[in-house]
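hi! just following up on the protien thing from before. the input was this:
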Amino acid sequence: MNPIRESSGSLTSGKFGCVDIAPLADTIIEQILHAEVVHADESCTRVQAEKRCDTNGSLWTLVGGGQVGYRFTPDRRHARASELIPDDFAGYLVTDAWPGWMKLADIEQAGCNAHARRPFAKEADRARRDDERSPDADLIVALYAEVYRLEKLAREDGPSAELLDRRKRIRNEQTRLVMERIKTEAERIAKVHPFSHPLAEGARYIAKHWDLLIRYLDEPLLPPDNNAAENALRINALIRKNSMFFGSEDGADRAAIALTVLHSCRLAEIEPSGYLAQVTPALLQHRLGRKQDLISLTPAAVAAVRQATKGK
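and the predicted 3d structure came back as:
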């Protein structure tokens, strides 16, 4: 049984009609956790409680290996990190440096430069709206624009089979210099602005997490940011916008299960209803106690088989 689902007190099944898809969702997350690079993030949810609506629930996402998994918990205690990421996790974990992730022992981690850039982009936008100028904010934003230009160059300039070698070369020869300039400017910005100023706070974030922010320079498999996880959590923002709350913790848990399957279909570029029609007979047999090979039923596996068949 998944430890988060067990500890949250939620039901251990998510069902579309009579089809139990929770084992399939669990298998998807198991596959994700075997990927070489896994992105992790969290955002708050609203859950109905007696005579009130709680806002301290959390929807977590894990992205890797072409699939995405979601888990719900009624809180975001630091211990949740170890429930999501097992001790034997052997890949790279890309995060936004939330303290819970930082407490995970013996796990290779990388930081998020998009998160580091954000305070400077917000201050630059504020200054433009107020018809002002913020040279320091503009400078860091421009330096990060160069970082991402170089990432795009590596991605587009040549055969995909050579991407990792090309990425490593460009990062070593060009991107590293830009990142060192970002560090130098951040150190200066932290000194010239008041301690509580958004730019000083952003500069201290860069300094504090510098080793994580440049980890991608030495590992071409890694991206410079955690955008994969942040993009996967946009659905939670849409849920908060379009509905008042999850009706219960059980409901939130079931929603996480459904999102795992449906959004993994999206990443695998397969149509969800057709996919569910294909795997439902096996899931029904699995529910009846006739164990099925769920690994071969995940969206990534089904998409791979379809692609191989199409190529014949």
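The first strand starts at residue 15 and ends at 16.
The CA atoms of residues 121 and 230 lie 17 Å apart.
cheers
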